Every structure is written in structure tokens, then in C-alpha cells.
Amino acid sequence: MNPADMFTQVGSVIASVMFAWAMFKQYCPYRLQEYFDKYSKRAFTFVYPYIQISFNEFTGGRFMRSEAYSAIENYLGSRSSTQAKRLKADVVKNSQSVVLSMDDYEEVDDEFQGVKLRWASGKHISKSQSVSFYPETDEKKYYKLTFHKRHRQLILGDYLNHVLKEGNEIKVRNRQRKLYTNSGSYWRHVVFQHPASFETLAMEAERKQEIVDDLVIFSTAEDFYARIGRAWKRGYLLFGPPGTGKSTMIAAMANLLNYDIYDLELTAVKDNTELRKLLMETTTRSIIVIEDIDCSLDLTGQRKKKKEEEGERDEKDPKPKLPKEEDSKQSQVTLSGILNFVDGLWSACRGERLIVFTTNFVEKLDPALIRKGRMDKHIELSYCSFEAFQNPGVVGETKMTPAEVAEHLMPKTITGDAKVCLESLIGALEKAKEDAILKAEEEAKEKEKESARLKAEEEAIGERERERESKS
Ligand SMILES: Nc1ncnc2c1ncn2[C@@H]1O[C@H](COP(=O)(O)OP(=O)(O)OP(=O)(O)O)[C@@H](O)[C@H]1O
Ligand SMILES: [Mg+2]
User: Which SMART domains does its entry note (predicted)?
Assistant: First the structure.
């Protein structure tokens, strides 16, 4: 047979096989296909001497990104940059370095103690059932490890531990801190770059050191928490008037410990179930922040009557954070939901986490929420004090928040003349002091007037009684 005829014949055989296969897929009942798949795979593994392990990106449905998957991704990053032809690039660390990882359907070889193995990346794509012009596809990525079955012990033990350990180390090295915020039931993130640090935070040196020590001890106390059987978590309650540095302190904490921040907006959380889901998705080494907790939720309303609470808020809170309409469509997250999350869920989540609540009015919070053990450390941030200011001459009894001080110290001219700033600050302090004196004088005058009025009233009553007595 000449080669041309042979090619024609082979070609027609291939075409027939493909046609038969397509027919089989099209018309063969689904169950039969499944059986066929199953038994063909079994027959294949019977003669195939290699073991394959898949590491899926998501575990538990779409709930959590698998830690193993991301460790493997990092581990393979450095290897794939020399072997794979198609790579994915991601920019990290202050937008300065590029980290490469392998693209889908690439393969990379690795060697461990003389044993050769192969990693491959892939994805399962399943189309959603909805009828639409743009059907949503659900991608499930995975890494597949292939090795000879005689190395089973070594690979499943030492090698996988080695991969996870090295992958996690690379992750820490390339780590870029993130600021997460919840929109609906998902977290979205941006790169977290905030210049705040404990050095620049105005506060009494002693208290500041105490907080820094507390944080550092917490972050290195894994063994201690394991030994005493407690979840590795710590709660902080930051309270004080607006502009006294609560948010700044959270940023300083994240910078000190190199943690991510999860800024939880409770008003956007529908109910307790959604809250639980969001919290389960938080990663280790993170700070979970709920700002202005007194305004985010009707926490106190669980135990008091709503009306009383409203009245109280109007008189005490000069700057309510939520408009009234928003109150009406408030989320259904309850105090007990929050308490469960602080106590119950923490214990189930592995890894270190800080939870920080901030509030302007600590007395508004339910005592159950802030008792020791839930919020371990209560930190009051207040007006610039003698120590924080280090300038006793002018401060006196004036109440000035660090935010106001910072505003006066901002450069006022292009040349950044420090004298102008200081003069502005001193002027403001003096004015604040004068105002305080005037206010005190006015108050004293009011008091005097009031006591004179009371005295006159008393005298009038006495006079009337004397008259009555003399008449009788
Ligand atoms: N203790 C402080 N040390 C240094 N800067 C501060 C301090 N407190 C406030 N500031 C400055 O004041 C500004 C406002 O502070 P911040 O947002 O931290 O206040 P806050 O207590 O969170 O207020 P709010 O209760 O309104 O949220 C920031 O720009 C910060 O730089
Ligand atoms: Mg704030």
C-alpha cells in the first residue's frame, strides 16, 4: 500500500472513531456514560503505576480558599518561572516586584530526595444551568501531583510537608497587607498602605508601650494559648471622642504586627448567618474591626426599650453616624449573633486574630459585649494630655483632640515653615483656653443668677408665711 493510501485510511478510521465517540456522548444515557467513565478509569489505574493527588482551590463548596492550594501556588511559583512557558504575573510589595506563577494547563517537574515528581495545573469548568445569553461559568482550579506509587510514603509525608512549609514561607515573604471590606456577603480588598505607626501616635509613652508589649506578646504566644486551651484571639475596645486616634491606632496595630485588616460594616450584613459566613472567610494573622459599634447596630435595644434608647442617643450623641432612614432598614444582626462570633466561632477558627471594636460612647454598649474575656483590653483615647503634648505651658485645661492638633501642624506654606504651624497651633490653643475661661465665667454667672433667684423665691415664701402668721 502506498503511503498516500495509508494516510487516507488512517484518517478515515480516526474520523469514524471520533464520530462514534461524539454519537456515544450525545445519545448514550447519562448513567451509562458515568459507568463507562468509572470503569475505564479503574482499568487505567490498574495498569498505570503512578499516583495522582488533586488539590482543589476551594474546599467546602465555595466557602474557603484552600490553604494547601495557595501554599502550592507559591511553592511552584519559583519553579515554574524556569520551566513553564505560560506564566501569570502578579505585582506585590509596594508595586515593586513581580511574582510569577504557572498558568492553567501547565506542567512543572520537581525533585525531592532523588525522587522525580510532576505538578500540573488545570481547571474544571461547569456551566450554570440558568438560561441566559451570557451563561455564567464556574471555574474550579486545581493542582495535580503525579508520582510513582513506590514513593507513596515519602511523598505523602515529608515531601508534602516540605511543600506546604516552603510555600507558606514564600507567602509571608511576598506578603502584601490587605484591607478587606464587606460588600454584601463577600469580602473585597485593596492593598493596605497606611503610614500610621506607634512612634507617630500621640499618647502617653507608658500607656503606648503597654499596648505595644501586649500586642507583641499576643502575636508570639501561640504555645501559651494552646497550652491553656484557649483560642488564639484577643479583643480590644477602643473608645474616646471623635478624632482622638482610634482608627489611626488600628492602622498602627496592623503595621506593627504585619496583619491584614477586615473592616466589617455591620449595617451591610443581612443577618447572623451572613455574619458567620463572612467571619469564617477571614484569614489568620488579621484584625477584624467593627467601627462605631454603638451606631452600627441596635445592640443596646435588645435589652432596653427602643424609645428610651432613641431619646438617650439624641441627648448624648452630638454627631449620630447614621441617618434616620438607614436605621429603619438596619440589618438583622443581633447582639447574640455578635457574642457568638466573639466567643463561639473564634474557638473554631484556627490562627491568630485580633478583634477591635471602636466606639465614641462606651457607656452605651451592652456590658455583656465588653466584659473581660470578650474584649480583653479597654483602651481609652482622649484629648491631648500633658504627657501626650509635652507642652504644659499652653495646654492647661483646654480640650483639644489630636486630630485638631494635627490639622494646625499641617504645613501651611509651600516652604513648610514650622514657625507658622506652631504659631497657628499656639493661637488655637490660646483661643481654646480663652473660650474655656469665658465659658466658665458664663457658667459661674448663670449659677450666681440661679442662686440669687432661688434666694429671692425663698425670701418671698418666708415673707408670705410671716404675713399669714401675723394675720392669724
Ligand atoms: N493620637 C493621635 N496621634 C497622632 N495623630 C492622631 C491621633 N489622633 C488623631 N490623629 C490624627 O487625626 C486624624 C483623625 O484621627 P482618627 O481617624 O484616628 O480618629 P478617630 O478616633 O478614629 O475618630 P472617629 O471616632 O471620628 O472615627 C487622623 O488623620 C490622625 O492622623
Ligand atoms: Mg475612626
Answer: AAA
pLDDT digits 0-9 by tens, 280-327: 888 888 999 999 887 776 654 444 444 444 444 444 444 444 444 444
Is 0.80 topped by the overall pTM?
no
The Cα–Cα gap between 220 and 218 comes to: 5
Local structure of 207: helix, strand or coil: helix
The domain made up of 180-382 has a fold known as Rossmann fold (3.40.50)
Task: Count the alpha carbons within 13 Å of 398 in the hemisphere toward its beta carbon.
Answer: 25
The domain locations on the chain are 49-176, 180-382, 402-459
Q: What is the pLDDT of residues 27-69, one digit of tens each?
A: 777 777 788 888 887 887 777 888 889 998 876 555 556 778 8
pLDDT tens-digit readout, 276-292:
888 888 888 899 999 98
Cα-to-centroid distance, 137 and ligand 2 (Å): 40
Ligand 1 pocket mutation pick from 201, 248, 261, 291 by most atoms within 8 angstroms of CB = 248
Tell whether ligand 1 has an atom less than 6 A from the beta carbon of residue 402: yes
Query: Would you say the CB of residue 295 lies under 6 angstroms from ligand 1?
Result: no
State the average pLDDT over residues 130-157: 77
Write the Ramachandran bin of 233: left for phi over 0, alpha for psi from -120 to 50, otherwise beta. beta
Cβ 379 vs Cβ 236: under 8 Å: yes
Residue nearest to atom 7 of ligand 1 (CA): 245
| Distance of CA 243 from the midpoint of ligand 2 (Å) | 7
